[in-house]
Amino acid sequence: MADRGRGGRGGSGGNSRGRGGGRAGGDDKPKREAILDLAKFADKRVRVKFMGGREITGILKGYDQLLNLVMDEVEEILRGHS
């Protein structure tokens, strides 16, 4: 049951490491650095503005490299339409 879906045997599930599928000389691009260091905001109240215009405030409890946030005591800030 573990080998469902994409076929192949064991291993890395389709990763092409070490078998010619990668770029030659992988050091072409400089390493990407995080634009925003969220660690300094951990356990502090932050305000988040979403692309649709909604805003929330809450205490930042955690995050990941894709900037998914885990927040506590969240409140949505409602703005009146004028």
How would you sum up this structure, described in words?
With 82 residues, the protein is mostly beta strands. The protein has a domain of 40 residues: SH3 type barrels (Roll), CATH 2.30.30.100. Helices cover 0% and strands 28% of the residues. The chain has no helices and 3 strands. A 3-stranded antiparallel β-sheet has the order 1-2-3, with no helix packed on it. A hairpin with a 5-residue loop joins strand 1 and strand 2. The radius of gyration is 21 Å and the shape is flat. The termini are far apart.
Question: How do the strands and helices of this protein lay out in sequence?
Answer:
Layout: E1 45-49, E2 55-63, E3 69-77
Antiparallel strand pairs: 1-2, 2-3
Protein name: Sm-like protein lsm7
Domain Sm: 33-82
InterPro entries: Lsm7/SmG-like, LSM_dom_sf, Sm, Sm_dom_euk/arc
Q: What labels would you give this structure?
A:
Sm_dom_euk/arc; 82 residues; Sm; RNA binding; 3-stranded antiparallel beta sheet; SH3 type barrels; mainly beta
Radius of gyration: 21 Å
Which architecture of the domain at 38-77 does the CATH hierarchy give at level 2? Roll
User: Helix and strand string, N-terminal first?
Assistant: EEE
Number of strands: 3
* Lateral strand order in the biggest sheet: 1-2-3
CATH topology of the domain at 38-77: SH3 type barrels
* Approximate shape: flat
Distance between the termini: 58 Å
Mean pLDDT: 78
Q: Provide a count of the helices.
A: 0
CATH class type of the domain at 38-77: Mainly Beta
Q: Work out the strand percent.
A: 25-35%
What class would the helix/strand composition place it in? mainly beta
Largest sheet: 3 strands, antiparallel
**Contiguous runs where pLDDT drops below 50 for at least 5 residues:** none
Percent of residues in helices comes to under 10%
Region (Disordered): 1-31
Protein name: Sm-like protein lsm7
Family: Belongs to the snRNP Sm proteins family.
GO molecular function: RNA binding
